[in-house]
Structure formats: C-alpha cells, structure tokens
Amino acid sequence: MNVYAIKIEDMNKKEINNLCLSINLEKRNRIQKLLRKRDKIRTLIGEILIRMLIIQKVNIKNNFIIFDENQFGKPFLKNYPKFHFNISHSGDFVVCGIDDKPIGIDIEEIKSIKYKEIAKFYFTINEFNYIIENNLETQLARFYEIWTLKESYIKCVGQGLSISLKSFSINIDKYKNIDLIEEYENNRYLFKFLKLDSNYKTAICSSNKEMSDRVKLIEQKLLIKEYLKLI
C-alpha cells in the first residue's frame, strides 16, 4: 500500500488544456464541464497522479491505460485486477491510495457546519454519542473523523451510496483504535487516520493488514514534470 498527496496550486487555462490532451476524452469532457477552475484543477491533478503511478508501478504506457467502472461507479484499471486505487480531494489537497487489495480513501477540509443535524440524519446512535460526549472544541473534529472513516469504507467496498450510512457503525475507543460494527463483515476491514494537515481529516480503509499511515507529499509542479516525461 502507498498513499500520495498533492497540495494543489493555481494553473492557467492553457496549462489545464494541454494536460487534458493526455487523458481520455470522457474524463476530459467531465473536467471541462466543471464550473469552478479549482474543481477542474483538483480533478485533473488526481487523474494525472494515478496515471503516473500506473505507468511507474504497472509499466503501462499512458495511451494504453483504460479505466472502467463497476456497477456502482467505482473506477478501476481494466485488465489488472490486482491493482486497486482510490482518489479523494477536498480544499487544497488531492490524495490517492494504491494497493493490491480494494482500498478506500477520503479527505475532508474541516469547515464550520451544522454537524449535529448531519450526524443525527446519517450516523448511528453510537457514532453520534462519540461526537457529542466530548467538549465543544473537539466535536467538529470528531464529526469529520467519523465522516471520513465511513466514506473510506463505502469507497473501499465499492458499492457507493447503495450502502446506507446507518447500516454500519464506526467505533473509536479511547486509545483511538478503530473498529467496524457491521453484521456481515466480521471486521475484516482495517482503518487508519492519515496525518496531512491540521485543517483536514483523512482516513483510509483496506483489508490489507500491512496498511500504512505514511503519506508521500508530491509537489504539483514536480508531478506534472515527471508525468510529462513519462508520456
């Protein structure tokens, strides 16, 4: 397992368009339809990051990289069943995890929101109690802990929102050990928090017993430079 992170920087329209020429038409059109430039950059950087990793790790030329999606919309690398990846972005960061087993990763920028109302609607009673049992200063951070863990699990199993967020529960004990409480899973999934930035919460989920909490931070300019060399 390896986890990578990019802190995004601004790009001009020409730079975005030139990089888009190196990706498939479907993804290119999806990026072009995004209204905010910031969203375009995050999505594009996520795309070239995973393409660079595939070229390096799987030894496929860029033009021969083919992505497909399962019935729930989770992307995968076609014809390479042992290569798994997942991408998430929020705020200034794009993160990507790769593994030889299914993997899910989620990053969320910590923002002031009505977290209690959201938690009551989407979280289990145990998860809600975990949030509110602590002082007000840490409740918002705890909300994002649960949120990223639940999202990472859903992305790992690859069934999207067909899984109700209340159908399983995340338990975090006083030692920060994390367990999944779900009738049929028998705790075969493992979770970790990733330390990236104090204004973000990032979580990863996998069945890999050797999962790491280390994140390799790559500068955006270096990523683009290396990627252009490879293609």
Describe this structure in words.
The protein has 231 residues and is of the alpha+beta class. The protein is 38% helix and 24% strand. It is built from seven helices and eleven strands. Strands 4-5-1-11 form a four-stranded mixed β-sheet. It has a three-stranded antiparallel β-sheet with strand order 6-10-9, with helices on one face. The longest helix is centred in the first third of the chain and has 22 residues. The two termini are 24 Å apart.
Write down the Rg. Answer: 18 Å
- The poorly predicted ranges are none
Major sheet attributes: 4 strands, mixed
* Percent of residues in β-strands: 15-25%
Average pLDDT confidence is 94
List the helices and strands and how they pair.
Blueprint (H helix, E strand, L loop, with lengths): L1 E6 L5 H8 L4 H9 L3 H22 L8 E3 L5 E3 L6 E7 L2 E7 L3 E7 L5 H8 L2 H8 L3 H22 L11 E4 L5 E4 L8 E4 L6 E7 L9 E4 H11 L1
Parallel strand pairs: 1-11
Antiparallel strand pairs: 1-5, 2-3, 4-5, 6-10, 7-8, 9-10
Helix pairs in contact: 2-3, 3-7, 5-6
